[in-house]
Amino acid sequence: MSSLFQKARRTLVGDRVFYRTVMAIIIPVIIQNGISNFVNLLDNLMVGALGDAQMSGVSIANQLLFVFNLAIFGGLAGPGIFGAQFYGAGDIDGLRNTFRIKLLESLALLALAFGAFLGFSKPLISLFLQGDGDPAMAEQMLHFGQEYLMLVLLGLPAFALTQSYAGTLREMGETRLPMIASVAAVCTNAVFNYLLIFGKLGLPRLGVVGAAAATVISRYVELGIVMVFTHRNHRRFAFIEGAYRTLRVPAALLRKVLRMGAPLLLNEVLWSIGMSTLTAIYSLCGLTVVSALSITFTISNLFNSVYMSLGTAVSVMVGQSLGAGDFRKAKTEVWQLMAFGVAGALAMGLLLTAFAPLIPRAYSGVTADVRQLATGLLIITACAMPLYSFSHCSYFTLRSGGKTVITFLFDSGYTWTISVPLALLMVRGLNAGILISYAVVEFANIAKCILGYAFVRSGRWIQNLTEHAQA
């Protein structure tokens, strides 16, 4: 028994150097995500004070924008895998070329997003308004959703370019600058939300339009900070020197990045559409569910910051170890990061359970039924957090080693073959109600964790991608 305990301790618990490295990476990310999600909560409260229709309309628009955001993350993930390993191998030219690929992919995704949102905003928003409820309320939700979406589109170019810069900085282990820029952006967003939503300091009372304008302003503040500091410190961030002299990249590298990145892009798009589809399915239980889910997602994201930050740690630490050819270190780091993430998620889940009955009361503009429903959904989310953390770390481990087809099957494949059909069965087939349906779908993630464990334990993800990558 003692030998088994010692073996488990060596496998799952790191030394002081390990935890210092982890904390140096994740603390700025936690601060960034924590402040961002806290301000999102304040924004949600301010929009919620306008009424159920306004909050639900904005929430639906953000569900659609969520697809674009994850498409950007997925599109940049392919070059990001190579970028972390290039940096670990000391190849700055390779890192610079991955940055250029990010710029090209961002331009392509922006063109697709503008085409989709400008041409099909009404039918897309209407997909979330099929449940029972007042038709007049559904019409108001549609109006406010379109109003918000059309203005927020102006901030998409800034978001895409910021992610190209920030992703490359994180691949170098620089997480403080993206954190500073994000904190400045969310503070800007909070201030202008208050001023423009409610018409303070002599400014017009714009309501939902004010919330959208504040978001756009904050996007460009974030981009300005990241770009100015990166270019001013070009010796430290050497990849930016000459990055814009040309957007041409070695054909061999481009082919490898696109071949490996395509499943990641497809995964993020299909997964985000899957999450939006789940919301649309849940909304069949009634229009009040849309408001309750908006509260649930906003609050739970605040508590998810700890385990979500571990994805960055896995990408940076494991990616650099693989790029340096230290496979044994990479495998050790994975299990220790997973253990750390599950422990953190368990602690945050207990904290969320304690506060779940209290936080929804702050939403003064919504009905008591919505607040009660949100409380139940938050408790279910809190109990499932350790499962989310384990599968999250499994995903980033497989991705760091370039096993993008497996990550596609593991993530969006699971969503569309298990989560979506299960939600349809519970809501439509069994008429189980939102709380039971949501609980069954979330706890079914146990199966995903088992798959993640098997994939990671196999070690097939361990490979150095930088060798001959630019040949």
Task: Describe this structure as you would to a colleague.
With 471 residues, the chain is mainly α. The protein contains 16 helices and no strands. The N and C termini lie far apart (52 Å). It has one domain.
List the helices and strands and how they pair.
Elements: H1 2-12, H2 16-48, H3 52-88, H4 92-126, H5 135-152, H6 156-171, H7 176-198, H8 208-232, H9 251-282, H10 287-303, H11 305-323, H12 327-355, H13 368-400, H14 404-429, H15 434-443, H16 445-458
Helix pairs in contact: 2-7, 2-10, 2-11, 3-4, 3-5, 3-6, 3-9, 3-10, 3-11, 4-5, 4-6, 5-8, 6-8, 7-8, 9-14, 10-13, 11-12, 11-13, 12-13, 13-14, 13-15, 13-16, 14-15
Helix/strand-derived category reads mainly alpha
Strand content is under 5%
Could you tell me how far the N terminus lies from the C terminus, measured between alpha carbons in angstroms?
A: 52 Å
List the uncertain runs: none
**Shape, principal axes of CA atoms:** globular
User: What value does the average pLDDT take?
Assistant: 86
List the keywords.
mainly alpha; single chain; 471 residues
Summarize the entry for a quick read:
The protein is mainly alpha-helical.
